[in-house]
Amino acid sequence: MFRIGEEEVAAVRETLLGKRMWRYQRDSQTERFEHALSRKMNTGYALALASGTGALIAGLTALGIGPGDEVLVPAYTYISTAIAPLAVGAVPILVEVDETLTMDASDLRRKITPRSRAVIPVHINGHPCDMDRILAVAAEHDISVLEDACQSVGGSYRGRRLGTIGEMGAFSFNFYKIISCGEGGAVLTRDPVLYERARIYHDSGLCFFSPGQEVPVPLFAGVSMRISEVLSAILNVQLERLDGILDDLRTVKRAIGREIGEGPDWRLSPMHDADGDCGIKLGILLDTPDRVGAVLARLRTDDFPLGLECPFYSERHVYINWEAVLEQRGAAHPLRNPFREMPVPYTDDMCPSTLDVLRRTLYVIVNPELEAAAAAEAGRKVRKALEG
What we know:
The structure is a single chain. By secondary structure, this protein is α/β, with parallel strands linked by helices. 37% of the residues lie in helices and 14% in strands. The mean pLDDT is 96.
């Protein structure tokens, strides 16, 4: 959460003192947020939920994904992207990422089988995927597209908002996201049937609808993923801050990137749409993993004002650290484990291109509050470390 102030405090106070703690009461903060988010993202429907993981699971449920299905996910993403298919009874199939660290559309095509039913492209760290190619592959094989835009609220790809390009999109608002309420999520779609199916699932089978209210799809059993009115009150204020946060984030990022430039064995990480980037991390791609370690060591002894990271060491974001997936423990009860009927031959080295590019990437974690002069100085320090 980059910016929080008295406006959020006032919104929470008003909600608490008004004793309106449940989304189905009048003047619902959650309903207000859903309408505001759908307008902001230029999509027909937005459903607020308790988490981004819940948004992915509700999205897959709405799309009809289940036992016997394969869902293609990138090998570099937060583990929730791979866990969500297991939660609906499907199995995740790992796809390589390219130098942008987003899904490699060529490898996506190679990994599709007759059991493939959906693909989850992840706009990781706010960097847009190659959506035109991914959509083309998906259309060719008649598979659904659920965008994981959990780390990219407000970003775009060729003028289209991330999370609104596929059939459905998932957002997250946890503490590490561009706008945040601590924990929260949303699923977006233009399809009223998909929206209703997600709404039913997230609300225990739509328990709290009025008798006689017309529901366009049959009710089915679900779980409770409803978001709190207090969290929605925070999100209503945070959404108003989004454009300002992104403007400042991009300004700081450009200032740092200009100073870093390109060298004999490094360059800024490529992007599929730099104008639509909304990431909090600036990537630098080096020729060898050893160089990444050396540059990190220099910067960490140079009073560097920003965070630094090699994504290979980002733990649950890298498939080799997904024990539950690699060891095929897809559920607590063995009879509910999707791998029981559909074993997948996972290995630690099954996505070598992904591991290679992760080891050769250095991330500078950007703070949108940084002044222009400080951002430029940070960029010069990175270049100095790169030059050795």
